[in-house]
Amino acid sequence: MSGKSAYDVLHERGFIEQVTDEGPIQRLLEEGPVTCYIGFDPTAASLHIGSLVPIMSLVHMQRCGHRLIALVGGGTALIGDPSGKTEMRRILTRDEIDANAEAIKGQLSQYLDFGEGKALLLNNADWLAELNYVEFLRDIGRCFSVNRMLTAESYRMRLETGLNFIEFNYMLLQSYDFYYLCKHYGCTLQMGGNDQWGNIVAGIDLTRRLEEKKVYGMTFPLLATAQGHKMGKTEKGTIWLDAGLTTPYDYFQYWINTEDADVKRFLALFTLLPMEEIRESEKLVNSELNMAKAVLAFEATKITHGQGAAVAAWGAAVNNFELKPVSADLFPSSSIPRTGADVDVSAIPTVEKARSELEGGIPAFELFHGVGLCKSRGEARRLIQQGGAYINGRQIGVFDEKVGIGDIVDGIVRARKGKKQHVDIRVLEGKSVPA
After folding, report:
1. φ and ψ at residue 427, rounded to 5 degrees
2. Minimal CA–CA distance to 268: which of 231, 296, 241, 239?
3. First and final CA of the chain: distance in angstroms?
4. Which residues contact 44 (CB under 8 A, 6 or more apart)?
């Protein structure tokens, strides 16, 4: 790392939205290692792209020598965070939350080094589940003003649609987390999305009252694309960080389809490339801008799934989309392959069909629906009528055109939707497809 402080790194890369005390936080991060924490909500078995901003902020904090606490909210998930929600979350069982928490712990290890003294993985169920309710009300509840709580954006939004008593307690529990982590682990900085600002400020106030210590807060912007779309949402659904839910190939494809206006911002937030190289991307246009998108996709996939998976996904994209090799002068710090020598098409989604199914020919609209490229036969008909369906690079002319034995090339029929979505149909010689 350079001599830049963690604050400088996060600021220049676009992570910082608000801080409670800018000057003191800058000095805090310059003068020596601090312990910071971010909470992760275990309401699913995997985190998704929306969690990448806080994850990458911890990556940078660790690279600058600070100590991390990744807090899995096994206890607060029993309540449900109303922040940014217009209706109450589904209440999960303790077993569901515990299983999700364990999965997320393992997932965070892909990004962070949990070696001795470097980072901790904690679950707030370990202390919240043991609290005595009457004692908690007496010792913690008395520190909170209901009038002040109701001014928080997360609560004001929900008052219009209904805020129940369980959710109203969430701020108290998250505030208690900060106090607990300060008292037992020396944590002095909480970080999180900007929708957590009210909870973070409340935790700072509680810690000051109970522990008589000065602690700080920092929030990140809630990201949307340049077109106003929510990060990580596509036609296929949520983009997960778990390879079992979103394949590395689909993950790579999400990033390579980044809008032009977002390329520099996403390179800064979601890769570890030097800012000196990223700033140069502002000058890129046309084919070179597409190369920058390939680098973004490669580097983001490498961080989440590893170098091998990133190379495989890149190779499949080169094979499918005829991507131009990335010039050695662009992003010299990137480990993206600069030639086609490492192409590996194994990352392309594959389905299997028996040869016997193709002997009589399958109407194209049925095939595109059957292999998952279209959600319905009606959508497949429209796709074909609009000229967006291809078999082995050949445009399908009519919706019921038969795809058959003559379309098999080296045991494969390659179906393509538009320019970006591919499925390889592997044809088996047997009479049926194995279960």
Report:
1. -95, 120
2. 296
3. 51
4. 100
Residue bearing the bigger pLDDT, 86 or 283: 283
The closest alpha carbon to 81, from 186, 205, 1, 192, belongs to 192
Per-residue pLDDT tens for 28-77?
A: 999 989 999 999 988 888 999 999 999 999 999 999 999 999 999 888 87
Find the helix or strand (DSSP H, E) in which 67 lies: strand 67-72
Which amino acid does the sequence have at 198?
G
**What distances in angstroms separate CA 100 from CA 75, 76, 103, 269, 274, one per listed residue?**
12, 13, 5, 26, 34
Q: What is the CB-side half-sphere exposure of residue 246 using CA atoms within 13 A? A: 25
- Hey, what domains does the chain have and what are their CATH numbers? 6-220 (3.40.50.620), 233-346 (1.10.240.10), 350-428 (3.10.290.10)
- What residues does 389 pair with on adjacent strands? 417
Phi and psi angles of residue 166, each rounded to the nearest 5 degrees, phi first: -60, -50
- pLDDT tens track for 313-332: 888 888 766 677 788 889 99
pLDDT at 191 over 80: yes
360, exposed or middle or buried, with CB in 10 Å at 0-12, 13-18, 19+? exposed
Phi (first) and psi of residue 188, to 5 degrees? -120, 0
Question: Which tokens go with 323?
Answer: 């991507």
- Answer whether residue 4 shows pLDDT above 50: yes
pLDDT in tens, 122-160: 999 899 888 887 788 778 877 777 767 777 766 666 666
Looking at every residue in the chain, the average pLDDT score rounds to 86
- In whole angstroms, what is the distance from residue 89 CA to residue 66 CA? 34
Give the pLDDT of residue 321: 67
Residues in the chain: 435
Nearest C-alpha neighbor of 392 from the set 429, 367, 359:
367
Cα–Cα distance measured from residue 30 to residue 238, given in angstroms and rounded to the nearest whole number: 38
